[in-house]
Amino acid sequence: MVLSFDLQSFILRARVLKLYRQSLRAARRAPSHARAELENTIRQEIEKNRHCDDKQRIRFLISEGLEKLKGLDEMLDMQGN
């Protein structure tokens, strides 16, 4: 099977991977008792949508993920982590 992989798909994939890495980095700042669960939740969210090929939906999921990441960062900042 040959996958058609256009530039837009490539860029979206790169944005998803960047969000994933940023999220895992933020999870490392969480308290040790919550870190593993947070990392698993992040992985599950990415895996749940792994086979989505609707570009509009992917863009929506990325923006939703960025909002969640922003909230997590703010919460960790308030806790001093």
From TrEMBL:
Any matching Pfam family: Complex1_LYR
Domain Complex 1 LYR protein positions: 15-70
Location relative to the cell: Mitochondrion
Keywords carried by this UniProt record: Mitochondrion, Transit peptide
GO cellular component, one term: mitochondrion
Keyword Membrane found: no
Stored PANTHER family: LYR MOTIF-CONTAINING PROTEIN 2
Role of this protein: Involved in efficient integration of the N-module into mitochondrial respiratory chain complex I.
Similarity-based family: Belongs to the complex I LYR family.
This protein's name: LYR motif-containing protein 2
